[in-house]
Write a structure and sequence with these properties.
With 302 residues, the chain is an all-alpha fold. The chain contains twelve helices and two strands, in the order E-E-H-H-H-H-H-H-H-H-H-H-H-H. The chain starts with a strand and ends with a helix.
Length: 302
Amino acid sequence: MATGDYTRVTRQARPLAAALYMLGACLCFAFNSVFVRYAAEDIHPFEVAFFRNFFAIGFVLLLVLPKDGLGVFKCERPGLLTLRAAINSASMLAWFFAVPLLPLADLTALGFTAPLWATLLAALVLGEQVRLRRWSATVIGFAGALLIIQPGFKDVTLPVYLVLFSSACWGVTVIVVRFMTGYERPNTILIYQCIMMSGFALLPALWFWSWPQPTTFIYLIVLGALSAGAHWCHVRAYSLQEVAALQPLDFSRLPIIALTAWWLFGEVAGLEIWAGAAIIFSAGLYISYREAQLEREGRRRR
């Protein structure tokens, strides 16, 4: 249906397919951190970020060109695509810098603060009205983050701040992606993201440039494949189902990464990590469901 200068893309909800895509994205995102850590032993994390997106372009083109051809580059909202890529690049660079410096389970648990940051930023920056129940859930969620960080008992280091910043950026990108899937095809969002994020990541990478060793190139190519797979699944999941309905599945990242970190690096997540992650995630889950409920009520009144 035409609406103003653009065409609104109508999508049918497919809960099972969306759930499978979301689980696939969680699996790829979890192993992303593992290969970032391996690659960052040889080159700077900003370089890792650039190569990850550079190699992802090739994998994404293999996925989208057979179906969409060159038409995949036709977009309706180039400004939104650029905004999403810029914010996502900031999130990625902060996250990659923190990966070699923090236990992977801590990293993942603190990453669950994204919906909390989305609520906070929507109120402070966008002037969105946030009522008592969502504020309460946000405060409880951040209390879970404090349980993990334990300020006053453990040193709060730069990597912790970087992960919180990364999660705040990611909270914004989730909202932007969900909005864009109403106007852009998932493959269009995906290809522009990889191309634009490569450009954004190249600039800081040049300051720390050194050529990777052959083994590191293998890690970087795998990272590109994981990135393409993660975002391909992620965009499709949100195009087929509401964010609130998919949010519970996102918690699967923690057991995946905790088990992997124990197996590969001998890292054992403490009880405070699991407890804090459960609190953060429950608060974020409530916020997502509440936002979906308010959105449905708003549509009924229109």
